[in-house]
Amino acid sequence: KIATTCIHRFWFSNYFSLSKNLFFLLYTFFGELYFYYIPKGLIKKKPINCYEIPGIFDIDEDDNIYGIFNDKALNIISFDYNLKKFNKINTICYDYKNYSLDFPYIKFIGEDIHVIYYLTCNKSATTILFHHYRHNGKWFENKIDIINISLLDNFTVFFNNDTPIIFYLGSVDGVTQVLTSTFNNSTCMWSSPIALTSSISNKVFLSVINDPLNFYHIAFSESQDYGYSISYINGYLNTDKFNVNYTNYITQPSDCMFPSLIKFKDTLYLMWVENKRLYTSQSSDLGLSWSEFLEDEYTLTNKFTRCFLKSNYDSDLLFNCSSIFIESNNISILGFHNK
Hints:
five-stranded antiparallel β-sheet, mainly beta, about 350 residues
């Protein structure tokens, strides 16, 4: 099996297992590209343009690797095992001189392809959440929503019977709220956004995971008393409504940022960064009660980063997560104290 890990925002890495060897690529936003061939270590290093960093890769259960990257256009690629190289499938063009493109996302569902990204006008700072969909060889384009907030983080996409459902932060009457929309495969249109929150406080850094039967766990940083707390809600998503089951502030106001929800086996973990340190709380009753916070000792003196986990290893599939924290120079997952 092949494991692919996509480092979020500041780092990007991929792990490929070819001929029983692990091939590891690490792209950094500091203008250098590293190649590692484990266990031999670093084999090549060269400078790159940070804007040439690919957007994201994914892998399916049949070991097919594909991805999308932005180089003045969105390039969709897939890996050819025989030639051991990536081939370009399609290119999505945009006005790169007047617009900036952020957080490209791609998913292959059989022969269908879903591409989603934020497109921001450089002059007006208006952002549109775009969706491109290839079905039966034809491409369709949709505007999911207009996002009139500063982009700090990406959206989250789930699939229910091949139907994409997106969660994101957007503006409702000038206030940032957690929103969701569902795609209609028949009409190739998205539903009107549903607001999951209603408070007037600012919200940033969204984390969402789902359990069976459309039950969702949601965490985000929310402004409160001159600081930011970690807010948590869960509930069921129906056709045109989100039924909130439970909501609570997990932390007191501070500088709590980058919440990350992970479900490992029967335990729900919630991690976040506070004062440049990583903290974890866990729940064994689907988020109704939470343990005391535990501080990860590694983060007291060492650098760490937040990343996406894309893998089809059987052991990795036990992790239901939107993002994870790892050591900056290793692939060890941080924040788990009782695995």
